[in-house]
Design a protein that fits this description.
The complex is a heterodimer of chains A (about 280) and B (about 130). Chain A is about 65% helix and about 10% strand. Chain A has 11 helices and 5 strands, in the order αααααααββαβαβαβα. In chain A, helix 5 runs antiparallel to helix 7 and helix 6 runs antiparallel to helix 7. Chain B has one domain: STAS domain (Transcription Regulator spoIIAA), CATH 3.30.750.24. Chain B contains 4 helices and 5 strands, in the order ββαβαβαβα. Classes of the chains: A alpha/beta (about 280), B alpha/beta (about 130). At the A-B interface, helix 8 and helix 9 of A face helix 3 of B.
């Protein structure tokens, strides 16, 4: 307990004035949301509790946990509403002015204490603003990671083309993570359905370099080890040229220009004959 | 030490691996199999590894080794029922088991062996 802490005394004595000035300060430089008043009051209460119980120089202490939680919630909800990180930290920074003014009035006679108090408050509020920015960034990164994962799942479906014939239309750049996912889901489907042939369609793969080719070869080898066979289709002319120029050896893998060609080969191998009614 | 049983079905030998292979067991299997092929004159070997969930480079090399040995003894080896995780592991280990025939399950493996026998017979007749 720091009974003689001027910041705490100020907050106890003039909480409402500080709150009003804070809101006014926010209003001077931008729009203030309808929820701002409630948010500010909640934050100020937590802030006061933090000043009372905790060390003002140590924002990472447990006494500041409630303040940190409120700031994190605030930052997250604002991120979801599309506000920028700057808006949220501005909300916190606006608290500086009313606190400085209040301290100046209370400690006008003692410049040394005034300076110390202002320095402490300033550092603390900077830390709070930093905290909102960090949380904001983290919640945005979560969103990006989730979207990436969804994209990954979206772009690797294994479809059954015919009895005993599976196909994977690959879309997007093939990195090792995606190849791993494709390989796992394809091999599992081969076991589940007992399919003897898998067609990997690379029409949607923008470029094939040595790394991508290596990933493809790995997948094909794994399929062969399982006792099934593999056809690669959708090789575009540019990609065929790149493969040859890079000197990639596709080790006797059957490649076809289109998925239709691959399907016709697959049907023949599985023993179906496709005829057309005259 | 436990030994993997080897069953004879017509012209083929059937090996089903139901336990996680220890290195010693694998070596013993290799010996036993070579002996049995020589004694019975079998033309085909079918190794079912559908219950095998863990492989290392040693087991991978052993599978390739068995295939090589049986080929010298004039028999065809088919490895059947490899689990996806096992296949991925072998690929990551750089073992593509060149020259080893594979099939999805025992039924298809037997069919593959029959076809191989027929081809052999035709070759022998001509």
């Amino acid at each position: 307990m720091k009974q003689n802490n001027p910041i705490h005394e100020l907050l106890v004595a003039r909480q409402d004035e500080v709150l009003q000035e804070w809101l006014a300060e926010m209003a001077t430089s931008g729009k203030v949301g309808t929820a701002a008043h409630a948010e500010a009051a909640q934050l100020l209460a937590a802030f006061q509790a933090g000043v009372r119980d905790g060390d003002i120089a140590r924002f990472d202490q447990p006494a500041w946990e409630r303040t940190r939680d409120i700031l994190a919630d605030l930052s997250r909800s604002r991120a979801a509403q599309g506000a920028s990180a700057g808006d949220t930290s501005h909300f916190v920074m606006a608290l500086k002015k009313p606190l400085f003014t209040g301290l100046q009035q209370r400690l006008a006679a003692e410049p040394a204490r005034l300076f110390d108090a202002i320095w402490e408050v300033s550092t603390l509020i900077d830390k709070m603003a930093q905290w909102t920015a960090t949380t904001y960034q983290r919640s945005r990164e979560d969103v990006i990671a989730r979207q990436q994962e969804e994209l990954l799942e979206l772009s690797t479906p294994v479809v059954k083309l015919w009895d005993g014939v599976l196909a994977v239309p690959m879309i997007g750049t093939l990195d090792s993570h995606r190849t791993q996912m494709v390989m796992e889901s394809l091999l599992q489907r081969i076991v589940d359905t007992g399919s003897e042939l898998a067609i990997i369609d690379i029409t949607g793969v923008p470029t094939v370099d040595t790394l991508v080719a290596q990933h493809l070869l790995k997948t094909v080898t794994a399929i062969r080890l399982m006792g099934a066979d593999c056809i690669i289709s959708g090789v575009r002319p540019q990609i065929a040229q790149t493969i040859v120029h890079l000197g990639i050896d596709l080790q006797g893998i059957v490649t076809k220009a289109t998925l239709a060609d691959a399907l016709s080969v697959a049907m023949k191998r599985v023993g179906y004959v496709v005829t057309r009614k005259a | 030490m436990e030994r993997i049983p080897i069953l004879q079905m017509g012209r083929s030998l059937l090996v089903t691996i139901q336990v996680d292979l220890q290195d010693q067991t694998a070596l013993a299997l290799q010996d036993d199999l070579a002996d049995r092929i020589a004694n019975t004159g079998a033309n085909g070997v079918l190794i079912d590894i559908s219950a095998l969930e863990i492989v290392d480079s040693f087991i991978g090399r052993m599978l390739a080794g068995i295939s090589g040995i049986t080929r010298v003894l004039d028999a065809t080896t088919v490895v059947v029922g490899m689990q996806p995780a096992v296949a991925i592991t072998l690929v990551e280990l750089g073992l593509s088991l060149e020259g080893v025939r594979t099939a999805l399950n025992v039924e298809r493996g037997m069919a593959m062996l029959r076809t191989a026998f027929e081809e052999d017979d035709v070759d022998a007749a001509s």
